[in-house]
Amino acid sequence: MNSDLWIIHCDDDDILRRHCKEIIKENFPDVNLIQCENGILAIEQLKKLEEKKLALIISDLHMKCENGDGKSLYKYIKKIGIDCPFLLITGDATQKFEEFQNDEKFYSAYKPFDSETLVSMIAKVSPSIKRNKNGTR
């Protein structure tokens, strides 16, 4: 990797994590990717990144970990002053996220989504990440 840009992807679904990794690596090959199965592990990784440029955090809303869900992760990064786009993904279409509506760095999306939708969302919320135009997805 030549890039100093990092994405953290947090989801407790192994299959979805693998699928998202393939999509991200194919379409954004210059970005470094860290994947975690819950918000607590993501926080541990955030602490290790130190000065590196965090371009985006993508997190599932509901994960099998007390205090390790997507909302808790988002609140934590805000508390410690991390200023990067945050994409919260959920399969629960009843979620509206009113408490975060005034934060210009907060984005949400609903599952299911296809590969191109994920790529478009990443490109939209984090313009610093350059897309590989030769990606086949």
Describe the structure.
- The chain has a single domain, classed as Rossmann fold, CATH 3.40.50.2300.
- The chain has 137 residues and is α/β, with parallel strands linked by helices.
- The chain contains four helices and five strands.
- Helix 2 packs parallel to helix 3.
- Strands 2-1-3-4-5 form a five-stranded parallel beta sheet, with helices on both faces.
- It starts with a strand and ends in a 12-residue tail after the last helix.
Layout of strands and helices, then pairs:
Blueprint: E1 5-10, H1 14-27, E2 32-36, H2 39-49, E3 53-60, H3 70-79, E4 86-90, E5 106-110, H4 115-125
Parallel strand pairs: 1-2, 1-3, 3-4, 4-5
Rg, alpha carbons:
14 Å
Overall tally of domains: 1
Sheet of most strands: 5 strands, parallel
CATH class, anyone?
Answer: Alpha Beta
Head-to-tail CA distance between termini: 21 Å
Average pLDDT over all residues: 86
CATH topology: Rossmann fold
CATH superfamily: Response regulator
Q: Percentage of helical residues?
A: 25-40%
CATH architecture: 3-Layer(aba) Sandwich
Structural class by sheet pairing and helices = alpha/beta
| Widest sheet: strand ordering | 2-1-3-4-5
Count of individual helical segments: 4
Q: How many beta-strand segments? A: 5
Name the overall outline. globular
Helix/strand order, N-terminal first: EHEHEHEEH
